[in-house]
Amino acid sequence: MVKYCSDVQRKMYNSMRQSIVNYFNAGSVQQVEMVLAQVRAEAGAEAGTGVRSTVLQDVGFKCKCGHTEAWEYPTHHTCKKCALVKDIIHRGKAYRDIRERADLNGVGMTHNPAMSQRYNFATVPRQNPDPKKRATDAHLKTIVSGNRVRLDTRDKHIMHAKAEFDEISCKLHFNSTPAGALQLFASYVNSTRKLEHKKTVMAACMFHTLKKPTGKEWTKKFRKGVYNVSKQKRLKRMTFKRAN
């Protein structure tokens, strides 16, 4: 089956590329395409450069007798072989203080392997949702200054690129920010020693997510040849017989 592509799709594709170039002030479309080829080559040359931090995997239950199967309960595990009980919650004052609170597992931000270990495991203080229990501004500034996350240079580049990708995606009326743009940018940043021409690289990463229309150019055909090859609608010529 022959795949067709309309002229409107090609014009929309070219218009989106020009909008990206104008937003990032990246020169011309040809320059961005050249940079895109370079970014793809360097980002794919180093295997595993996109992963900068890992999450510790849970080893599971392991008894002193060497058995790894157990009955699991909310507060403890019981070995199926020797019936040894292993507590998973410390029943002290801390447990009595927090047992009435809601489960906070999974509330924090998800682990991002493209970011550094310091970024993923940093503790950022936040205000209490209850206005009566909120700290004063001076006290909060002291806490934040003591626990401030010192971002790595690559982390700053990735966070800035994410904000720019969100903005240009909104201007192009995308449903969401393409994940491939940020993944390519993070891989390129982690594989190069010094980031140069940052705006052009970000524009190239957005080019990477655009799908180029391919296929045979569509034209409306009639019995007597090609008709209406442009946007303008033309009336079919009519011939009349001469009256005798």
How would you concisely characterize the structure shown here?
The protein is mainly alpha-helical and 244 residues long. The protein is built from 8 helices and 7 strands, in the order βααβββααααααβββ. Among the domains are: 4-52 and 175-217, no CATH class; 62-99, no CATH class.
Describe the structure.
This protein has 244 residues and is mainly alpha-helical. Among the domains are: 92 residues, no CATH class; 38 residues, no CATH class. It contains 8 helices and 7 strands; from the N terminus they run E-H-H-E-E-E-H-H-H-H-H-H-E-E-E. The strands form 3 sheets. A 3-stranded antiparallel beta sheet has the order 2-3-4, with no helix packed on it. A two-stranded parallel sheet has the order 1-5. A hairpin with a 2-residue loop joins strand 6 and strand 7. The longest helix has 19 residues. The chain is elongated, with a radius of gyration of 30 Å. It starts with a strand and ends in an 18-residue tail after the last strand.
